[in-house]
Amino acid sequence: KQEVTQIPAALSVPEGENLVLNCSFTDSAIYNLQWFRQDPGKGLTSLLLIQSSQREQTSGRLNASLDKSSGRSTLYIAASQPGDSATYLCAVGKTSGSRLTFGEGTQLTVNP
Amino acid sequence: DAEITQSPRHKITETGRQVTLACHQTWNHNNMFWYRQDLGHGLRLIHYSYGVQDTNKGEVSDGYSVSRSNTEDLPLTLESAASSQTSVYFCASSGGRPQNEQYFGPGTRLTVT
Fold first, then answer.
1. Is the separation of the CB atoms in A23 and A74 below 8 Å?
2. Rounded to whole angstroms, how far apart are CA atoms A85 and A42?
3. B108, burial (CB in 10 Å: exposed 0-12, middle 13-18, buried 19+)
4. What is d(CA B112, CA B96) in angstroms, rounded to the nearest whole number?
């Protein structure tokens, strides 16, 4: 059974800092990995999706990397802003279009 | 713009009542999913569908059912609501090749009293 772990569970940083969120998974036979953002009381917004054949994806200040063989992914946020404060969730899919298995998330607070 | 909507957004019901949560997507995606989110458990899969007339159980399916009569809708029914089913429910869909990225609805907060 796939298990996804995110460390740390919570992180508080000053504005402007570069930071890394970690995600690990137990079964390396994945099809893709998706990073989401969730604001309090809201739904999930997809940030980045990495296919199993890819090493990284970038969108603006966000960069996600994938090391499938070691079962790890990182989400790098450059020059953090208070508006980045949210919970970040990592999820893996086993096959194309399949259900996702989620980590419990990292709650990020960026202080002005 | 294509989207995925859920209704109602908030619902309070009594133990033992039947409740149906609606999910509607306009992406024409084949794949649709229902998850519940609880503190300490993260998001867990309840049911999913890969197309019309197809339904499958997820890891926490007891007490829930779904039906898929068209591409756009996957309603989730709680047969006899229990306090343990108090949660936030999210619907999602995917189907855009080749990445099959999943898109989520805004959620329904259900309270069973």
1. yes
2. 13
3. buried
4. 36
Q: Cα–Cα distances in Å, from B26 out to A103, A112, B45, B72?
A: 28, 39, 22, 6
Give yes or no for A44 touching B (CB within 8 A): yes
Tokens representing residue A49 in the block: 């999706």
B48 and A99 within 8 Å at the Cβ level: the answer is yes
pLDDT tens, residue by residue, B20-41 = 999 999 989 999 999 999 987 8
For B:60-89, CB contacts with A below 8 A are none
Q: Are A68 and A93 spatial neighbours (Cβ–Cβ below 8 Å)? A: no
How sure is the predictor about B1, in pLDDT bands with cuts at 50, 70 and 90?
A: confident
Sign of the CA dihedral B56, B58, B62, B66?
negative
Instruction: Calculate the CA A24 to chain-centre distance.
Output: 10
Give the span between the Cα atoms of A56 and A37, in whole angstroms.
18
If you measure CA to CA, which chain B residue comes closest to A106?
B42
Q: Which residues of B touch A52 (CB under 8 A)?
A: none
